Amino acid sequence: MAISNQFSHLLTVFQGRTAPEEGYLAGYGALIKTFELQVVIPDILAMISLKHKRYDTDEWMVYTPRYMPENSIMGHLTFALKYEGIDLGVLKKIFENLPEVDITHLIAREPTGRYSRMIWFLYEWLTGKKLELPNLSSGNYVDLVDAKIQFATSEFEISQRHRIRNNLPGVRDFCPMVRKTDKIRHFGELNFSAQIKSVLDHIHPDILLRSASFLILKDSKASFAIESENPAQNRIQRWGRTIGLAGQRDITIEELQRLQQTVIENPRFTKLGIREQEGFVGEHDRRYGTPITSHISAKWTDLNKLLNGLIETNKKLEKDADFDAVIAAAMIAFGFVFIHPFVDGNGRIHRYLIHDVLIRKEYVSRGLIFPVSAIITERMEAYR
């Protein structure tokens, strides 16, 4: 593939996304365009304005001309890591497009530089390859993830080779990165967990027990309703009992399979266990029968690797008392449903995992749950 030497592209539209004004792509956007990468486009892109006004929109970070990065791979990688945070999917595709000798030369120019070390570490971490570069023996250690931009773990691992504190919130096979948006910061500051515990302290235990039972049963029924099912009462009660035990059994592949067996009514019509075929979530055109996909599941050949990665990340986040419980629950539960490892039952298990993580992270007391599914049924469009 021919790669242009021009990294900063003047434009008003990129990948169907209209820029708020004319400007130059910078950081990840510039690298995606230059390398013609087939990747998920970051939710927020960066651009350099022709004007002298710094501002943000829902889809763009607009910088003034003085922020223009050096017109090179290293210049835009540095800009991306400094201002946009870490996008592992884009970075891996960039590394796959760069010969090993080229990335080695880029890092060797300034091996002790902060961003050179970050790129060096991320290259070896993502690809599993070790570059022909000597270990560093001096220099301060630096955090890999900028905790002002993205959520990072406080249970970091030290890489002496790169003099990096690896505070990524996951492992190589499963590591979602979550941006600290204003909305997320706002809700985090409300500290709902403390508010709930304060209220519950003043409720009689008998009333609390009855309320907890009601919420669990209500959530079980709602979880089936989300899947457009109207099961018999015994199935609702059975799944409710399972929800009530959230946080008490370690999440393993075997446990996930047990949960699927609990939620599926008749295994004669559904192949249980990790699927051995490609997944399809969607519907078919009524006239022509053409599939209309609403979700592309992970390749079935990748499922064991992804699930083991998810399980390891779940353990890592559970141990980190400082990591936000709601963010951890979102990472694990939505990560699971995006992987879609089973032919059926993924949605209900995904919502179970929200309860499981919140209880393990002590966001709520064991035996109590938030009516997650019940609220989702009221906001189905937002959930989809």
What key phrases describe this protein's structure?
five-stranded mixed beta sheet, 15 helices, 384 residues, alpha+beta, three-stranded mixed beta sheet, globular, 10 strands, Fic-like fold, 3 domains, 45% helix
Structural class: alpha+beta
Summarize the helix and strand pattern as letters: EEHEEEHHHHEEEHHHHHEEHHHHH
What is the fold-level CATH name, i.e. the topology of the largest domain? Fic-like fold
Strand tally, please?
Answer: 10
Shape: globular
CATH superfamily of the largest domain: Fido-like domain
Give unreliable regions as ranges.
none
Portion in beta strands = 5-15%
Using only C-alpha atoms, the radius of gyration works out to 23 Å
Largest sheet: 5 strands, mixed
What's the pLDDT, averaged over the residues?
91
Question: What is the CATH C level class of the largest domain, in words?
Answer: Mainly Alpha
Strand order of the largest sheet: 1-2-3-5-4
Number of domains: 3
Describe the oligomeric state of these chains in a short phrase.
Answer: single chain
How many separate helices?
15
Instruction: Kindly state the percentage of residues in helix.
Output: 40-55%
CATH architecture of the largest domain: Orthogonal Bundle
